[in-house]
Design goal:
By secondary structure, the protein is α/β, with parallel strands linked by helices. Helix content is about 30%, strand content about 20%. Strands 1-2-9-8-3-4-6-5-7 form a nine-stranded mixed sheet, sandwiched between helices. Helix 7 links the parallel strand 8 and strand 9. Helix 4 packs parallel to helix 5 and helix 6 packs across helix 7. The longest helix is centred in the C-terminal third of the chain and has 21 residues. The N and C termini lie far apart (about 40 Å). The model has no long low-confidence stretch (mean pLDDT about 85).
């Protein structure tokens, strides 16, 4: 039985497993999401460890950082099979011509481009999030970027009335004030959400602390979010409600 959603203004938020909830949703204009990477280590034992240890690095330790990311311990093949399942269901819930954007790191990038196509999408390219602050790696190229393969459900005719969006975004990662271990900057997500053309909701099946939802609220977009971890779900609800409140104050 699908759990009842929490409705906050333009946002409809579900606590649960996206594979169970996705089939019950209405059509959406875009899927923009930052799923668990199941990365952060060269070996299986590394990937199976605490996500705080894998991803936090030198950041501070606010309370939310201690909440591990559910589903981040798969190996590469397991991740690919699992991602194909939920992306295939997303495909069914999307309007024709709509856009799917999924974040990845360098380790999962080949898998991410493959599963996007395996789910039925037309692969359109790879965007880059370049981080000004990064960990130096003596004698090596720094891991300074994360990536977002993107595609469309079928054809996407050119519309020359629309602005050209960049393919590289430079935004600083949240620091010690972050509320999720892999939290993306709100400004970055606002920029990426502008790829959605219609008026139907933007969907994030791995909502985390709700940054995609906050971006949608700031842009006046409808949003559907799903999160499996109750603590992160509560954080997302609070952040999205605060964003709604700010919009009402300055509207």
């Amino acid at each position: 039985m699908t759990p009842a959603p929490v409705i906050i203004g333009n946002a409809t938020l579900y606590l649960g497993d996206c594979l169970e909830i996705l089939p019950t949703l209405p059509k959406v204009d875009a899927v923009i999401t930052d799923p668990p990477y199941s990365s952060g280590g060269a070996f299986r034992g590394d990937r199976a460890g605490s996500t705080a240890k894998k991803y936090m690095g030198s950041y501070g330790k606010p309370a939310a950082v201690d909440i591990d990311v559910v589903g981040d311990t798969r190996d590469g093949l397991g991740w690919a099979f699992w991602a194909t399942l939920w992306l295939s269901q997303c495909y069914k819930q999307m309007e024709d011509g709509s856009v799917c954007v999924i974040f990845s790191d360098w380790r999962q990038l080949p898998n991410a481009t493959n599963v996007l196509q395996a789910a039925g999408f037309v692969w359109r390219g790879i965007g880059v999030w370049a981080k000004p602050g990064y960990r130096p790696m003596a004698g090596r190229f720094a891991h300074q970027a994360e990536y977002f393969p993107w595609g469309t459900k079928g054809a996407a005719p050119w519309d020359y009335s629309l602005p050209c969006l960049p393919g590289v975004f430079t935004d600083a990662a949240p620091g010690s004030d972050r509320e999720h271990q892999t939290q993306k900057p709100s400004g970055l997500m606002e920029s990426i959400c502008k790829i959605a053309r219609g008026t139907a909701p933007i969907l994030d099946p791995f909502m985390g602390s709700g940054t995609t939802g906050v971006a949608c609220m700031n842009l006046g977009r409808k949003f559907i979010g799903i999160e499996i971890e109750p603590k992160y779900f509560d954080i997302a609800c609070e952040r999205i409600e605060n964003a709604q409140r700010q919009q009402r104050m300055f509207a």
